Amino acid sequence: MSKALEVSEATFDKEVLQSNTPVLVDFWAPWCGPCRMIAPTVDAIAEEYAGKLKVVKINTDDNPELAGRYGVMSIPTLMLFVGGKPVDQVIGVQPKDAITQRIERHL
């Protein structure tokens, strides 16, 4: 089971936009092979940064409006939100170090 919280359009504002801590949003879909490849990395980041960073997952098949609102054209897309605004993103499968370096810039 994922360490990241599943978020939907109904809970996105509360969990992401109104969060007091930075939030890493994983836009994914169950059929996406690269999404499954990066999932363990996302879980590891959720565990490693617990208390400093919230990590959530958004299934783009179930929540297409959110993907559209943030211009997600391909998945996986990891988007970092600080103060309710997107400040960085990583598209595709990337090494954990590359992702955490980008997160560290905003913590």
Explain what the structure shows.
- By secondary structure, the chain is of the alpha/beta class.
- The protein has one domain: Glutaredoxin.
- Helices cover 35% and strands 25% of the residues.
- It has four helices and five strands.
- It has helices spanning 12-17, 33-48, 64-69, 96-104, and strands spanning 5-6, 23-28, 54-59, 77-82, 85-91.
- A five-stranded mixed β-sheet has the order 1-3-2-4-5.
- Strand 4 (77-82) and strand 5 (85-91) form a beta hairpin.
- It is globular and about 30 Å long.
- The model has no long low-confidence stretch (mean pLDDT 96).
Give a short summary of the structure.
The chain has helices at residues 12-17, 33-48, 64-69, 96-104, and strands at 5-6, 23-28, 54-59, 77-82, 85-91. By secondary structure, it is α/β, with parallel strands linked by helices.
CATH superfamily: Glutaredoxin
Shape: globular
Radius of gyration, Cα only, in angstroms?
A: 12 Å
> How many helix segments?
4
The CATH topology is Glutaredoxin
Structural class: alpha/beta
Uncertain runs are none
The strand order across the widest sheet is 1-3-2-4-5
- The CATH architecture can be named as 3-Layer(aba) Sandwich
Largest sheet: 5 strands, mixed
What share of residues is helical?
A: 25-40%
Q: Distance between the terminal alpha carbons, to the nearest Å?
A: 26 Å
**Highest CATH level, the class:** Alpha Beta
Number of extended strands? 5
Mean pLDDT: 96
Structural domains: how many = 1
Give the DSSP E fraction (strand runs of 2 or more residues): 25-35%
Q: Helix and strand succession?
A: EHEHEHEEH
